[in-house]
Design goal:
Elements (H helix, E strand, L loop, with lengths): L5 E5 L4 E3 L1 E6 L2 E11 L6 E6 L2 E8 L19 E6 L4 E6 L8 E5 L5 E6 L4 E7 L14 E4 L6 E3 L3 E3 L2 H5 L7 E3 L4 H4 L4 H7 E10 L5 E3 L4 H9 L6 E5 L3 E5 L6 E3 L5 E8 H4 L4 H31 L5 H14 L9 E2 L2 H7 L8 E5 L2 E7 L5 E7 L7 H13 L8 E7 L2 E7 L6 H5 L10 H21 L3 E3 L8 E3 L5 E3 L6 E3 L5 E3 L12 H6 L1 E3 H17 L13 H12 L15 H14 L10 H9 L41
Parallel strand pairs: 12-20, 22-26
Antiparallel strand pairs: 1-2, 1-8, 3-4, 4-5, 5-6, 7-8, 9-10, 10-11, 12-13, 14-15, 16-20, 16-21, 17-19, 18-19, 18-21, 23-24, 24-25, 25-27, 26-27, 28-31, 29-30, 32-33
């Protein structure tokens, strides 16, 4: 295979381009080995020997195959992988190695893939696989672990024993291993709590993760862990950089232990398998923990007594603290923002009494308050564990102080004292859109004309953020709970803690910290951290479909279909007119509903280039011009229950790239 040629598949057209070996070094007729690209998500390279699996590369992780050791951040990958789940296509191509004009990939008659390059005099081997007996597919059977550095090479995973001791002693490991202690979670699969209390995970490092994986739509290792823990059928999980969360619900096949590199794998075991080897260690550890706990409780009590005696606000401290914060902010950055004394806000909210709590924001609770002059305010109290530190706090102040638009919430000021940070906003009597939209009674208050006005208002606010304000701002967390409503039901976009500014003609940026709300994130942002105006457009599309249906994306399930799939099918069958909340049928304008459904589908297109920009979006909503036809969104194919126990490889027809689901 020469540079720029590729192996690929095209499922709808029934095409599968593979690299086939010669029968022998002197016989160019087709041999028994072939190299192909699998339709799993993410995909992986696979060498077959006839119909049997011979070697696999492990799943693709942006710039590398995770199952090939020795590929670190310094490795210049000659591979290019492109996969379109919605279209059922993918390709794997090879480019020339840097500094070498002559190179090629070959599959030998012995079943080895090799990359060779020419230094001007000789052909040099750059890469070869498989190189070890552990690289051969499933060498140690199900739940077996092939260790490259030991002899014999096969052992059982922790908590497992050989299925056949006799075969294992003879060096025949293909039957694999079985669990030594049954999982409590499986004894009562209806009780997740019971499983959480008894089962746990054993963490392995430097591992080539097993085959038969599934991609789960979770953006953090903690979410990956919690989901697997709460799912009794989840055997193991791995959070891999460049991929995200992979889970295994069946046997673990083709697991390899490397000396270095590799990934981390967490294996589900019964609590007894995870217990310490010595009862004395447990007793000593427990005693030490209790002692530390008692000391901490006593210290906390003494500190509380000290603070109680000094509960009166100290004006000198307040002024000093706020002066320090003011010095950290450029004067032009906080024009029009007032600094409120902390005791003023405490008095206004009755010391943050629970009766004044309006709701829970992304970074802390929000309270209603009344100032001495009778003015009503909303106070966002940033909790120390919320994740919004000084950077996000300052970001929100600087941003909102510069933004003035009727469809954006107005920031009145802030208050800072030590670790306590407060943002003071204008109070909006009707709270947030989700309060009305997802309530069986209150949803009748916002009939279709009001909903259509809300949709247009949000779009106008977005246009101001993206195009018309002094700063170009990408919100990054646009959702129904961040749309507030005033007394006239005029929508106002709120919560700018995660927003980012662009300078000049800049239109795209990348972040290593992917933040936001699952279900509303654009695919390119969730996968790669790249965000732009089109990221907010995707979120708007999800929000638009929620407003039309009155259903929350994270809770919607119609015969196993997601909200996005349901919307697409409705569009294909009736142009979306039946998608509107039936309680509003008498107030609707079918043409407007159909148009909004079509716009919503255009906004959630997989490719950012297929989505409208904000100016086009507002034009679509305020005129009757012709609209382009939407393509099928990528988040519409789902796993069917009747196929979940299949032993076949997962294909694009069984698994969607549904990486975005609401919490």
């Amino acid at each position: 295979m020469l540079p720029q040629s590729s192996v690929s598949y095209d499922i709808p057209r029934g095409k599968n381009r593979v690299l086939t070996s010669w029968r022998s070094n002197s016989d160019p007729s087709p041999g028994e080995f072939s190299l192909e690209f699998t339709p799993q998500v993410p995909p992986q390279g696979l060498i077959r020997r006839g119909s049997s699996y011979h070697w696999r590369s492990g799943p693709w992780a942006k710039t590398r195959f995770s199952g090939i050791p020795g590929i670190d951040a310094s490795y210049v990958s000659p591979f290019t992988v492109s996969q379109d789940v919605a279209k059922g296509t993918a390709s794997f191509s090879y480019s020339m190695l840097r500094n070498y004009k002559l190179s090629y990939v070959t599959l030998t008659s012995e079943g080895k893939m090799k990359i060779l390059w020419n230094d001007g005099k000789h052909w040099m081997l750059h890469f070869e696989a498989p190189t070890s007996s552990c690289d051969l597919y499933g060498a140690c059977g199900p739940f077996g672990l092939c260790v490259r550095s030991r002899d014999p090479k096969c052992i059982c995973l922790k908590g497992f024993v050989p299925k056949s001791d006799e075969e294992w002693r003879k060096g025949n490991w293909t039957s694999g291993c079985v669990r030594r202690t049954h999982l409590t979670c499986h004894t009562n699969s209806s009780s997740k709590t019971q499983g959480k209390e008894t089962d746990g995970f054993y963490h392995m490092s430097h591992v080539k993760t097993p085959d038969l994986y599934q991609l789960a739509g979770f953006l953090s290792a903690e979410q990956c862990y919690q989901d697997c823990l709460g799912n009794c059928s989840c055997t193991a999980f791995a959070y891999i950089s460049g991929i995200g969360c992979l889970v295994w619900n069946r046997e673990l096949v083709d697991t390899v232990q490397f000396l270095s590199d590799g990934e981390s794998l967490s294996l589900r075991l019964a609590s007894s398998e995870l217990a310490g080897s010595s009862r004395r260690k447990i007793i000593v550890g427990t005693t030490a923990s209790l002692s530390i706990f008692v000391i901490l409780v006593f210290a906390a009590y003494k500190f509380w007594r000290y603070r109680t005696k000094k509960n009166e606000p100290n004006p000198m401290f307040i002024n000093t603290s706020q002066d320090a914060w003011k010095k950290d902010m450029e004067p032009q950055d906080v024009t029009g923002v007032n600094f409120f004394p902390m005791h003023t806000i405490r008095t206004a909210t009755n010391d943050f009494n629970s009766s004044n709590k309006l709701g829970q924001g992304g970074f802390g609770p929000v309270y209603k308050g009344n100032l001495e002059d009778g003015k009503e305010i909303a106070v966002k109290r940033l909790s120390s564990s919320s994740g919004q530190g000084a950077d996000e706090f300052m970001n929100e102040i600087r941003l909102i102080s510069k933004l003035q638009h009727k469809n954006l919430v107005r920031l009145l000021g802030c208050s800072i004292k030590g670790e306590e940070k407060l943002l003071i906003y204008e109070f909006l009597v009707n709270k947030s859109l989700d309060v009305f939209l997802f309530d069986s009674t209150l949803k009748l208050v916002i009939d279709w004309p009001k909903r259509f006005n809300i949709i247009q208002g949000i779009a106008r606010g977005l246009l101001y953020l993206h195009r018309d304000s002094r700063l170009r701002v990408i919100h990054r967390d646009l959702k129904v709970s961040n749309i507030l409503l005033d007394e006239k039901m005029i929508p106002k976009i709120s919560d700018f803690g995660l927003a980012r500014m662009f300078q000049g003609t800049q239109c795209q940026e990348n972040t290593r910290r992917v933040v936001g709300t699952l279900g509303y994130m654009a695919p390119e942002y969730a996968w790669t951290g790249v965000f732009s105006e089109k990221s907010d457009i995707y979120s708007f599309g999800v929000l638009l479909l929620e407003i039309i249906t009155g259903e929350k994306i994270s809770r919607f399930n119609e015969e196993g279909r997601t909200l996005l799939e349901y919307a697409w099918e409705s569009w294909c069958e009736t142009k979306g007119v039946d998608l509107l909340d039936q309680a509003l049928a008498d107030t609707s304008h079918p043409a407007e509903v159909r148009r909004c459904v079509q716009i919503g589908l255009l906004c959630i297109q997989h490719q950012p280039s297929d989505r409208p920009n904000t100016l086009e979006l507002l034009t679509m909503l305020t005129t009757t011009s012709d609209l382009p036809l939407p393509k099928q969104p990528m988040f519409t194919v789902h796993t069917r229950d009747d196929e979940s126990t299949s032993n076949d490889l997962i294909t694009v027809n069984e698994l969607t790239q549904s990486v975005i689901q609401g919490r």
